[in-house]
């Protein structure tokens, strides 16, 4: 019997303890029981309380006489009689069982929900009837007043099967895409189902209408919780008329009062695993919640941990024996665990001797198996020089090796390696030296290029590691170890120019920070050159001084920026003066340009105008053409626009046009002079 204690609560593991090899004869087993006290104290509460491979669900009948469990492989159900402390019967099934329910007080009426959408009914003599539901089921509940079975699964509907009429009734239509679990309140028979969207829908079986909706996914996320996806409902249990406990797929348990939409308390398992089972212990006002790794018992009013159990194998289901301190689990292992916690209540009446045993037994946490035998492989036998014993009675073949007496093993090891103690001593000394070295200052090997940037990244990485340890987050990858940025610390072309204008303006406090890093760089270079390892840290300012410096840096940020800008202006002024002196010293020489054949030279202004015109947008050029008169834009009757362009004339056309214009002006002057002479002659005739 294994005894553990947490928060001064003793937990007795009745299924743990030393077990004997199956290949031992009965005579040797009796001899070991006489000699070994631990084997004599070993308790087998129920004979063959196990499954061939794993167990998935375990439940107790209402009269407390029968314990039923389902498991694999092959799919089967086993019934254990507590009054006889042995197995009553075993039945094999066609497919694996998702869950089952005992409808009667004893084992005479059982319903199994199987993987292949089958619902199988068993009576006292065995298989009775089998039917099928439309979608794959995940859970079901039995409504005693109406004899209805409510099935939930991979569908938005809740299927109802009436066992009195023997037919399916109208299903309930939920708002969810899928439902995972369901339960019926034992007092007022309210039906509740937990959905994949993290909501709990409550239905009244009398009117078949939804009467409530709880958003548990939103309530389960608090300031301390960290989740990866949307929490779905994985466990659901009623307690009395008003209390309900909900377990999520992200490891939170929420306790609700049905009169409020906000949870009374949210308990996090901190493992991120789905909650498998939720049970209520009314005597001490405890809630027993379990995921695949741990079983936690905590107070439902304060949330304070009462005790916890962490079995060796993953947990599939938890069953609390009514009105007692016994707890049973179905595991990912052949053996089903039985725990007895005296604080929760007395032992069941069929094993009342446990109360006397727990008072007499002392704490014995030893849980090793086959302490009198050592398992060795063929290679181990060859190293020990015992390969000639293969086939003799001193070695018992088992799997890929052999069992041998532990005393013979120790003798052979001492003869084969007499200096084993010296090797053990050297190894311990080496471990102690490594522990002391870890406390010293570790030399940092910096790259040849961008040393200050590498030192900055190392410091930031150390700060991030401290933060992630406090918050229990995953460490981010380092840039120094990333192959994508390896060239930045190897190629001199990627060297950061700290004297450039952009760098100085973007990093106004770089001067002070770089001075600190340069000091550290000098210290590291000296240590690398001398090859010394100093135990004390390099001299520097205390943490308080550094914090005060950081606050001063924040205050003088604006002044530092102004100073950098002023320095940049002065440097620019000096550069301009140097350029002016160079221009004065240089002699200007005439430059000659060659004109292409067939082109006329006008002036440099025309080419400059053309360049300016080409830089303008199309809209600006069109406006300019309109002003010059070479373009005319008008609206048409249809609503579109019409553009008319005038082609530019060549030099010859322009000369011809000017000659024509001059000719017309000459003709006009001749006509005017001729008309003037005619008018003078007419006046002279009148006077005559």
From TrEMBL:
Keywords: Coiled coil, Nucleus, Repeat, WD repeat. Residues 648-663 have a biased composition (Basic and acidic residues). Coiled coil: none annotated. Residues 632-643 have a biased composition (Polar residues). Residues 528-538 have a biased composition (Acidic residues). One of its GO terms (cellular component) is small-subunit processome. Residues 664-688 have a biased composition (Basic residues). Belongs to the WD repeat NOL10/ENP2 family. This is Nucleolar protein 10. It comes from Halcyon senegalensis.
């Amino acid at each position: 019997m294994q005894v553990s204690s947490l928060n001064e609560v003793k937990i007795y593991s009745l299924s743990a303890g030393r077990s004997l090899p199956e290949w031992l004869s009965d005579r040797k087993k009796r001899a070991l029981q006489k000699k070994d006290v631990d084997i004599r104290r070993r308790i087998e509460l129920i004979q063959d309380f196990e499954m061939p491979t794993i167990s998935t669900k375990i439940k107790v009948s209402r009269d407390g006489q029968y314990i039923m469990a389902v498991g694999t492989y092959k799919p089967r159900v086993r019934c254990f009689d507590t009054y006889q402390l042995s197995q009553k019967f075993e039945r094999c099934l066609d497919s694996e069982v998702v869950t089952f329910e005992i409808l009667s007080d004893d084992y005479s009426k059982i319903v199994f929900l199987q993987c292949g959408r089958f619902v199988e009914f068993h009576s006292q003599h065995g298989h009775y009837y089998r039917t099928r539901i439309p979608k794959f089921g995940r859970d079901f509940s039995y409504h005693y007043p109406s004899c209805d079975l409510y099935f939930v699964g991979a569908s938005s509907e809740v299927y109802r099967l009436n066992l009195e009429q023997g037919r399916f009734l109208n299903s309930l239509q939920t708002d969810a895409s899928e439902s995972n679990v369901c339960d019926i309140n034992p007092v007022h028979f309210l039906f509740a189902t937990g959905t994949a969207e993290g909501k709990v829908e409550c239905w009244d079986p009398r009117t078949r209408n939804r009467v409530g909706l709880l958003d548990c996914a939103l309530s389960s996320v608090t300031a301390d919780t960290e989740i990866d996806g949307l929490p779905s409902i994985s466990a659901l249990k009623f307690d009395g008329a008003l209390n309900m406990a909900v377990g999520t797929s992200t490891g939170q348990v929420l306790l609700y009062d049905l009169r409020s939409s906000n949870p009374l308390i949210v308990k996090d398992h901190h493992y991120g695993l789905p909650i498998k089972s939720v049970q209520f212990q009314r005597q001490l006002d405890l809630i027993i919640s379990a995921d695949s790794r741990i079983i936690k018992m905590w107070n439902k009013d304060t949330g304070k941990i009462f005790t916890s159990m962490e079995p060796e194998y993953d947990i599939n289901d938890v069953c609390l024996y009514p009105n007692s301190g016994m707890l049973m689990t179905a595991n990912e292992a052949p053996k089903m665990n039985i725990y007895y916690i005296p604080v929760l209540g007395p032992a069941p009446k069929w094993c009342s001797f446990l109360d006397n045993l727990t008072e007499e037994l002392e704490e014995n946490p030893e849980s090793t198996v086959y302490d009198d035998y050592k398992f060795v492989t063929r290679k181990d036998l060859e190293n020990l020089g015992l390969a000639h014993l293969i086939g003799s009675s001193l070695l018992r073949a088992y799997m890929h090796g052999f069992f041998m007496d532990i005393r013979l093993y120790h003798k052979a090891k001492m003869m084969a390696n007499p200096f084993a103690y010296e090797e053990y001593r050297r190894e311990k000394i080496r471990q102690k030296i490594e522990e002391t070295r870890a406390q010293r200052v570790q030399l940092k090997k910096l790259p040849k290029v961008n040393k200050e940037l590498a030192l900055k990244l190392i410091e930031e990485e150390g700060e991030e590691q401290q933060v992630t340890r406090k918050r229990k987050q995953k460490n981010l990858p380092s840039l120094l170890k990333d192959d994508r940025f390896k060239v930045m610390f190897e190629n001199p072309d990627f060297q950061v120019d700290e004297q450039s204008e952009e760098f100085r303006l973007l990093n106004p406090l770089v001067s002070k920070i770089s001075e600190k890093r340069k000091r550290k760089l000098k210290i590291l270079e000296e240590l690398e050159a001398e090859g010394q390892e100093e135990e004390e840290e390099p001299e520097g300012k205390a943490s308080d001084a550094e914090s005060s410096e950081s606050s001063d840096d924040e205050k003088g940020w604006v002044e530092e920026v102004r100073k950098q800008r002023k320095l940049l202006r002065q440097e620019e002024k000096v550069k301009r003066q140097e350029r002016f002196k160079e221009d004065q010293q240089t002699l200007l020489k005439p430059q000659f340009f060659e004109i292409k054949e067939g082109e006329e030279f006008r002036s440099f202004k025309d080419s400059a105008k053309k360049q300016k015109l080409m830089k303008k947008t199309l809209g600006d050029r069109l406006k300019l053409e309109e002003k010059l008169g070479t373009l005319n834009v008008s609206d048409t009757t249809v609503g579109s626009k019409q553009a008319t362009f005038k082609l530019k004339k060549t030099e010859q056309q322009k000369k011809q046009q000017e000659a024509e214009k001059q000719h017309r002006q000459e003709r006009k002057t001749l006509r005017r002079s001729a008309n003037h002479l005619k008018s003078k002659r007419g006046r002279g005739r009148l006077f005559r």
